[in-house]
Design goal:
By secondary structure, the protein is mostly helical. It folds into two domains: about 15-75, Arc Repressor Mutant, subunit A; about 80-120. About 60% of the residues lie in helices and about 5% in strands. The protein is built from five helices and two strands. The chain has a two-stranded antiparallel sheet. A hairpin with a 3-residue loop joins strand 1 (about 65-70) and strand 2. The two termini are about 25 Å apart.
Length: about 120
């Protein structure tokens, strides 16, 4: 698992790490039941405090994306995958609502907006 953190970001470190783990679960890079790195090893690998990783794992467990088993480790849990997907859809819907509002404001037809979306979606 490749986690990249930014010390210059306004987003706290634990949230950056937590969101990247959740993304890896959603993308299938981490599978249900897979053992996450130990707190100490993970903290050393990405140069953060063990308290930061403990907080990440505890929050992942509260949100249903991990299960902590004393003496065994922290394991990926897919129990909350659909909730994560739905929350991501809501974010996209909000952005699309803004785009539709602006398109209407500037007199852009629905077909033209669809064409823009097709072009932007295919770009990469």
């Amino acid at each position: 698992m490749n986690v990249i953190i930014s010390n210059s970001s306004d987003v706290p470190l634990y949230m950056q790490i937590k969101e990247q783990i959740k993304d890896a679960i959603l993308k299938g890079e981490l599978e249900d039941g897979e053992l996450l790195p130990s707190i100490r090893n993970f903290a050393n690998a990405i140069h953060v405090s063990v308290l930061t990783i403990r907080r990440v794992y505890e929050e992942l467990e509260k949100e249903g994306f991990a299960v902590i088993q004393a003496g065994r480790g922290t394991f990926v849990s897919m129990s909350n995958l659909e909730l994560l997907r739905d929350s991501r859809r809501r974010i996209i819907e909000q952005d699309l609502q803004k785009a539709v509002y602006n398109a209407k404001l500037f007199g852009i037809a629905k077909d033209e907006l669809y064409a823009m979306l097709d072009i932007l979606y295919e770009e990469d």
